Amino acid sequence: MAIWAFALAALLTNATSAYAQSSTDLADSLIQHATRLGAIPWSARHRVEWPDFRGRPHNGGSTAAETATGIGYMIQCRDEHLAFAVLATFSPFESWVRTDVPGSSTASAATLRHERAHFDITELFARRLRQALSAGQDICPHGTKDARRTFEQLRSASDQMQIRYDKETSHGQAAGPQAQWEKRISAGLDSLAKFRIDGGKD
Question: What's the Cα-to-Cα distance from 97 to each of 5, 50, 64, 108, 162, rounded to whole Å?
């Protein structure tokens, strides 16, 4: 079960030749910045675990856990050349799990899978943004408004998908729909594998 939260960090800059960076450099900078702030970049190799849910559980209600995720992006223009980075992150101090859940033999694994899929949905839309920026024409030097508009459209679509995911899976309690959603999300990530940036550490 989850309530989804969204955070945004954006940096749009026009770079001089002395400070222009490659997309790889920007991605490294964005990962380092997110890590300094305590966020966990999405990674297929290192999945979030219950100890990563460090927020204070909400009192009352039946919600077992809450996952807070976000997408940060940086766009840099050097004349007509575009460099960009997009990163999906998990916020440990805004994400929480009820104290009785991790020790439950029946609820723990299923609930964690549900929460991880929320993070995967955020990564799915991060990849869609990378795809859109890769295909974007005339973003530099005056088209950054188009990039922001694309982000807002994807953000709205992500909001809707997160809400639908919770509703159709009954916050992870409906095993059949949960499994179907996990397959759907996995297929979406696979279809955009070329736009993957794994922020996890080896």
Answer: 14, 7, 6, 10, 18
